[in-house]
Design brief:
CATH topology of the largest domain in chain A: Glutathione S-transferase Yfyf (Class Pi), Chain A, domain 2
Number of strands of chain A: 4
Number of domains of chain A: 2
Structural class of chain A: alpha+beta
Strand order of the largest sheet of chain A: 2-1-3-4
Distance between the termini of chain A: 19 Å
Oligomer: homodimer
Number of helices of chain A: 7
Shape of chain A: globular
Largest sheet of chain A: 4 strands, mixed
Strand content of chain A: 5-15%
CATH architecture of the largest domain in chain A: Up-down Bundle
Largest interface: A-B, 32 and 32 residues
């Protein structure tokens, strides 16, 4: 088995952090150079036809892509510690929290970066800077809602660490690097406190 | 229990079609008027804080939002017929197929519609028409890839009907109504044949 990743990209990092939380160390990682367009090569598209990382290649030749789908597989194969819900009821509510963060926080911030940052022009053509800036505003609005949530509960999905914290952390760290977005600077103190607490976990170092 | 939907919106339709496939008839549906802004009212935000439909309200007061999370819950409560995978391996590969369709087909087509269609201006402010048109091109490219897939396999995730077919069908029907997108007109005959076959299922009438 092999996991194809891209250094500094937030989606592969979500899988890497998920694996670190579970103590999975026996899956070798192979870096794909996005800036050089390696993900669009015929060789990589033979594995991941839509040119996406991360991708998990099995020894039988099958390849699983899509961050959360890879985590679903890993959760089944390596059940402990549970990160996605122990029964269908908890699984559904954690999936809700994870999707809210992925769609309404991470995606808008990533779209802002992809459409406004010169360093991402090679990955996003054409760029629409005005659209990108409008997305930042939408992401900030959801960040403020999460800040209010975290004033009442310790983790993104409630009272324990889950995949939703991983998605939020990797999304916010990407925005910290490329948008200089720091929740504390915007008065979002609960979100900043949560971020600093997650950053202390060994899995945050991947 | 109550399911909040919005007539003609593709995401609530995914849940409605999912329920129809399972023969779930005991959950009353309540329509929310998006054009009148009812989803942004304080009353609805008390249930769905990010103003999203669909939303599944439980008798104990909890509310579950996010289309796929609602399906995860329904799949647990009403397991037959299975639409999301019988074990973690199948569940992961179906999730991959579902996410590919949701992110790279349905979302780009919906973004095109939301950013270019005058009728959607009330829901998407500001609209960025050039961005919208670029998204249509990305969606069409993935539709062509799915067309090639469906020349080799009968359903979106492989050899049986799953949630991925529901996501693709509801996304394409939305694009058919508001973009006049018909795969057959673009030479995508396998995708058109698949669409016409799914349209014959009783669940497609919701």
């Amino acid at each position: 088995m092999k996991l194809y990743i891209a250094p500094r990209a937030p989606n592969p990092r979500r899988v890497q952090m998920f694996m670190a939380e579970k103590g999975i160390t026996d899956i070798p990682q192979v870096a794909v150079d996005l800036n050089a367009g390696e993900h669009r090569s015929d060789a990589f598209r033979a594995k991941s036809p839509l040119a996406k990382v991360p991708a998990l290649e099995f020894d039988d030749g099958r390849v699983l892509t899509e961050t959360r789908a890879i985590c679903t597989w890993l959760e089944g194969r390596y059940p402990e510690p549970n990160l996605m819900g122990v029964d269908y009821d908890e699984r559904a509510f954690i999936e809700m929290a994870d999707r809210r963060i992925e769609f309404y926080l991470m995606a808008p911030l990533a779209n802002c970066i992809r459409h406004t940052h010169p360093g991402l022009a090679v990955l996003e053509q054409p760029q629409f800077p005005d659209y990108g800036r409008s997305q930042a505003a939408k992401g900030y609005e959801v960040a403020r809602w999460l800040d209010a949530q975290l004033a009442r509960q310790p983790f993104m999905a409630g009272d324990r660490f889950t995949i939703a914290d991983i998605t939020a952390f990797c999304g916010l760290e990407f925005a910290r690097g490329l948008m200089k977005f720091k929740p504390g600077d915007e008065g979002m103190t609960a979100l900043q406190t949560w971020r600093d607490r997650i950053a202390e976990r060994p899995s945050a170092r991947v």
